[in-house]
Structure formats: structure tokens, C-alpha cells
Amino acid sequence: MRVEYDEDTCIGMFQCVAEWDAFTEDKSKGKAVLEDSEESEDGVFAREVPDDAELDAKFAARTCPVDAITIYDDDEQIIP
């Protein structure tokens, strides 16, 4: 399972931070940060989701009010 996070879309509600500890607050930017992620050419941050964190990652994606977090399983998008 993989998570992708579009920082430009983030509006800094930090609901993802409450759901999964891979997200932290960057108050200076007013955005969340996806820890241990790599930034792609289009500015999207991505990382693999550990097996024991899959449920937390899904909750983080579902609670994002602007759909800045996307979850993929075997390259198929399962949560927008």
C-alpha cells in the first residue's frame, strides 16, 4: 500500500495528524508534512505504508477535507 500527499492542496486542518503519526504539523507553512516521504517531480509526496499502519493511513485520507491524501493498493486508487 502506498500513500500520496499533495502538499499544495493541503489547507492545514491537521486532521490527518490526529489519525496517523506519519503526518506532522509544520506550523510555519500551515501545512501537514508526510514524514519519510519522497517528493515527485509534480510536487506530490509519497511513501509506502507499513502493514501495521494501513488502517491509520486510510483514516488520515478519509478525514482530509480537501482530498490531499490518496491511498493506492497495488497501483489501484482505493481512497481519493
Automatic annotation (TrEMBL):
Keywords: Electron transport, Iron, Iron-sulfur, Metal-binding, Transport. It comes from the Archaea. The keyword RNA-binding does not apply. Pfam families: Fer4_15. The keyword Metal-binding applies. InterPro entries: Fe-S_cluster_ET. SUPFAM superfamilies: 4Fe-4S ferredoxins. GO terms for molecular function: iron-sulfur cluster binding; metal ion binding. This is Ferredoxin.
